[in-house]
Amino acid sequence: MIRFIAFFCISLLSFLPKAKAGDPAVYNITIRLFETDSLPVNAGGVVLVLLGIAFMASETFIPAFGILAIGGLLTFGLGASILFDGDTIPGLSLDWSIITSIILLGVLLITVITVLLARTIKERVSTGTESMIAESAEIIEWHERQGRVRVQGEIWKAISDKEKDLKPGDKVTVESVENLLVKII
Predict the structure, then answer these.
(1) pTM of this prediction?
(2) pLDDT reported for residue 68
């Protein structure tokens, strides 16, 4: 009878127009149900599920290369498997196919994201002054160790460590870019 009244109260609170997810009454009733063992949920399972979700969420902020996410999935799976206490209500448990499906979906998602991130790390820089390094440049004008060059359609002031006899139209390679000066080889 106590279970019926408690579940009725939670259901009623969730349908009331002024009740919000952060309403203290909802939490108060839930805590009371935990205290009286009326709610057929294992507290350890709840903690493990929440810990698993926290691990997976922290992977986005901490570059752990998937270790936290995989640990989170395993923790989530363990918590989900012991979440419901079958002794209180016989037959109440999560089906293993649901738990396995969620874990496999998570592993697939982590694998896809890790592969995509690995590809972006290997790509060459395509924007900014770093993208000009090792690019071909055309001499516009040149006097001893300095002049102007055209790189990626833009004209830049250029310098060289050595004195070079370069003519307009000659091709050179960009070594570095420092303080809006292109250093050529």
Answers:
(1) 0.49
(2) 81
